[in-house]
Amino acid sequence: MVKTLIRYAVLFAAVIGLAVAFAPSAGASTIHTIAIRTSFSTVSPCNGQTVNTTGIGLVSIEINASEVRVVASDGESGGGYDFSEFSEDYFDGLSSSYTFPGTVVEFNLHAPADSFYESVSVNVSARDGDVPTGFHSAVLSATCGLELDF
Question: Is residue 10 within 8 Å of residue 18, measured between CB atoms?
Answer without folding.
Answer: no
